[in-house]
Amino acid sequence: AQSVTQLDSHVSVSEGTPVLLRCNYSSSYSPSLFWYVQHPNKGLQLLLKYTSAATLVKGINGFEAEFKKSETSFHLTKPSAHMSDAAEYFCVVRAAGNKLTFGGGTRVLVKP
Amino acid sequence: GAVVSQHPSWVICKSGTSVKIECRSLDFQATTMFWYRQFPKQSLMLMATSNEGSKATYEQGVEKDKFLINHASLTLSTLTVTSAHPEDSSFYICSASAGGPQEQFFGPGTRLTVL
Is B26 left (phi over 0), alpha (psi -120 to 50) or beta? Predict the structure, then answer.
């Protein structure tokens, strides 16, 4: 069975400073991992995905994530936060049948 | 990316009535559609998976007779909440995929409030 744990329910950063969102996963086989962002009243948008290619994955809007098998982690980072990054972020693992298991979410607040 | 729409975006209904939510893939054929429920300040939980022309597969704990899913065409799936009660109030989100391990594209969600 797959599971995902997002270690922080809330993260607050100042505009222009780095953002780190932590995610640990559990999977019985080599996983496919995703990060999605959800802005208020909008659909989920895919930021990036890992599907067993390069372990450092670059996504949209300056985000990137590194897959570390030894640590079962897939943390999301961005070097410089922007006000528009304020949203809910979900780490997701894909299981058989293309079923997605979502982490609990991390709400990001960006202070001016 | 591909576009998925949902209708309505929000709905308020009385307890005991039924509500239908539509999910459409606008620019691709969605072999598989998924329905999720998201309670306030919580994550998304998969309710069911539907393949075009087949019966939906429900996750454990989801009542199939209460949440009726129809996926009659490659661009449309519907979720009907039957005999809705206040505890069914939630944000319902669909996603669509071209099948297999293809990326899921998410709709904007439908907020259901049952009075």
Answer: alpha
Q: Mind listing the pLDDT tens digit for each residue in B30-77? A: 999 999 999 888 889 999 999 888 889 999 999 999 999 999 899 999
Take residue A89 and report the two structure tokens written for it: 């972020």
Closest C-alpha among A68, A78, A87, A93 to residue A6: A93
Residue of B nearest to A34 (CA): B103
Residues of A in contact with B4 (CB under 8 A): 43
- B114 φ, ψ (degrees, to nearest 5): -110, 120
CB A76 within 8 A of CB A89: yes
- Distance between B84 CA and the closest CA of chain A, angstroms: 23
Looking from the CA of B5 toward its CB, the CA atoms found within 13 Å total 8
> What is the predicted pLDDT for the residue at B1?
66
pLDDT band per the 50, 70, 90 thresholds, residue B100 = confident
Judged by CB atoms closer than 8 Å, whether chains meet at B109 and A43 is answered as yes
Residue A46, chain B, CB below 8 Å: the answer is yes
